[in-house]
Amino acid sequence: MVSQNELIKLTRLVGGANRILVGSHANCGDATGSVTAITLVLGAQGKEVTPFLPEPVAASLKFLPGTEHIISDPAEINFKNYDLYLSVDAAEPKLTGLADKFNERPSSLITVNFDHHHTNTGYGDINIVDRQAAATCAMVYEWLTSAGWPIDRQVATCLLTGILTDTGTFSNPATNDTALKAAADLLARGANASRALRQVIGNRTLTELKLWGRAFERLHDYPDLGLVVTVITQKDLAEFDASEDMLEGVANFLNDLEGYRAIMVLKEKPEGTVKGSLRTTRDDVDVAAVAKLFGGGGHKKAAGFSVPGKLVETEQGWKIVNP
């Protein structure tokens, strides 16, 4: 748990700020839920809040209140316009899509790094990092209740969605008693659990299922490593007229495979990079350490990375090749 002194300090810091930038990483229920919840609450406190994500909100998360106000174009962000920057659920600045601007930020801007990732680099002026937390939304819940700020039905839905996402609907090792207690209270406050569950684990379209089928077709195991890998290319997305966010959940689904140490899903991005998602259920495997080798990070049992290149099928199998 985060210390009460840290939460009190954060509350006072927010109280003295007028223009606040809230940012996180893309295509994640915990990130989007944290950003929307904080934006709603601080907006109700009379603060001028700008929510930012480096990519447009995933279709499955657009049901969250306030997502229509989220900015995804870095050109619209000028750090000189803010008193406070809250970076939530992002282990390092490059994940927010604002790294270049962050490196040139004015000295007067206070940055709060509010996160739960195992590989967080401690890049903030103030670092509130709880690596034992199941989700950043669970930490946000703890902060809001400590501050005594109202958590209405909309905010509760945002926070519950983030907790459901990062715990795999309470099925993965990140699940703990703190997350369960927070979820119970959020339900009592009116969180729309049925809608959140449909969006997180259900509500699949025919197009999504076809895309998932392509990923399953390409499953390849490496017995010596105890690893299972699959790939999805930009050509696949175009063939099915699908969007990348339709692949959300594939890695978690494959993580239930028995007899393997870890799984990896490689997704080709339009800007000339390949994103890798790593998952494991084993206590003796640290996929965050593997992701870190490629400049990524995350949790011990769920991590990711991005590298330049494209996916190419060869006689020896799929490879990441630089253009």
Number of domains: 2
Strand percentage, roughly?
15-25%
CATH superfamily caption of the largest domain: inorganic pyrophosphatase (n-terminal core)
Question: Mind describing the biggest β-sheet?
Answer: 6 strands, mixed
Could you tell me the number of beta strands? 13
User: Which CATH architecture of the largest domain would you pick?
Assistant: Alpha-Beta Complex
Q: In sequence order, what are the helices and strands, one letter per element?
A: HEHEEHEEHHHHHEEHHEEHEEEE
Topology:
Layout: H1 4-15, E1 19-23, H2 29-44, E2 48-52, E3 84-88, H3 99-103, E4 110-115, E5 126-129, H4 136-147, H5 153-166, H6 177-188, H7 193-201, H8 206-217, E6 220-222, E7 227-232, H9 234-240, H10 250-254, E8 262-268, E9 273-279, H11 287-293, E10 297-298, E11 302-308, E12 310-314, E13 317-321
Parallel strand pairs: 1-2, 1-3, 3-4, 4-5, 7-8
Antiparallel strand pairs: 6-7, 8-9, 9-11, 10-11, 12-13
Helix pairs in contact: 1-4, 2-4, 2-5, 4-5, 5-6, 5-7
